[in-house]
Design brief:
Blueprint lengths: L3 E6 L7 H14 L4 E5 L7 H4 L10 H5 L5 H4 L1 E2 L6 E4 L12 H12 L4 E5 L6 H7 L4 E6 L3 H16 L6 E7 L1 H5 L6 H8 L2 E7 L4 H7 L10 H13 L14 H10 L6
Parallel strand pairs: 1-5, 1-6, 2-4, 2-5, 6-7, 7-8
Antiparallel strand pairs: 3-4
Helix pairs in contact: 1-11, 5-6
């Protein structure tokens, strides 16, 4: 059986979609899976930086599509995980340089060699989004517990369903339990009531995330990071593993509430 293509998308920019993609790629590789991550955000690539591979780029996705590079030439092997590869986006071209058909063809060429293909979608609903969603077998929608982010996620969910790619699954990123408890932030229950998607993971706010992204060492490699553990658990759920929902006693009420919602311990 060929690789499963998982597109990570969002409506609003800045919700942590690229960080999520990088950490899920590393987490899946740590689970022994063969993984390639594709940066579909043409003109604004960032996935290479978060993965610590920015200095090794020779060819990119547009070079593949336009025939200047063979697929294997553009794939950058991760320094730490030999079964993890990156296909970077082009910085100097616009999104029209790649079509949805091109993305399907690239993904189809990769399917037999890998277990998972992760596609980092640009934010928004224009050509770049359509490119990223075209080859998807599964779509993960990343949102923050903010009204504007959830509203934009709702629009993306409608487009996913219109493309017959749904239902997607939801990742709530940067949740702050103490703010939820005080009524200053949307709860996971609020978000699921609005969006109607099943949650595949909740990533708590974590001070380790930004330094990890800046250093090119994904936070999932940090055993002290709650966000890193959350990304690992999401990767395990992607593979079909039925794992207990992680308990974070220090986070208090919101996670107990989630336990009631989803029938297990507190969820990340």
């Amino acid at each position: 059986m060929g690789a499963k293509v998982v597109t990570i998308t969002s409506g609003k920019g800045g919700v942590g979609k690229t960080t999520t993609t990088a950490n899920l790629g590393v987490s899946l590789a740590r689970l022994g899976k063969k993984v390639v991550v594709i940066d579909a955000d043409i003109g604004l690539r960032n996935l290479d930086v978060i993965m610590g591979l920015e200095n090794r780029i020779v060819y990119d996705l547009v070079d593949i599509v336009e025939g200047r590079s063979k697929l294997r030439q553009a794939m950058i092997k991760h320094k730490q995980f030999p079964d993890l590869y990156l296909i970077p986006a082009a910085q100097t071209r616009d999104k029209m340089a790649v079509s949805p058909t091109d993305m399907i063809q690239v993904a189809d060429k990769l399917r037999e060699e890998f277990d998972y293909i992760l596609v980092d979608s640009p934010a928004g609903i224009e050509r770049g989004y359509r490119n990223a969603i075209a080859p998807a077998d599964e779509v993960l929608v990343v949102t923050n517990p903010e009204v504007s982010a959830v509203r934009d996620a709702d629009r993306i969910i409608g487009l996913i369903e219109a493309e017959n790619k749904g239902p997607g699954k939801l990742i709530i990123n940067r949740l702050k339990p103490h703010m939820v408890k005080k009524g200053e932030m949307l709860s996971a229950e609020d978000i699921t009531d609005i969006l109607g998607l099943r949650i595949i993971g909740i990533v708590p706010e974590d001070d380790y995330v930004i330094p990890a992204s800046n250093s090119g060492v994904p936070v999932t490699l940090n055993p002290e990071s709650r966000a890193g553990i959350a990304f690992t658990n999401i990767a395990r759920r992607i593979t079909g593993e039925d794992i207990p929902l992680m308990k974070l006693e220090e986070t208090g009420g919101i996670f107990n509430r989630l336990a009631r919602l989803f029938g297990s311990g507190s969820s990340v």
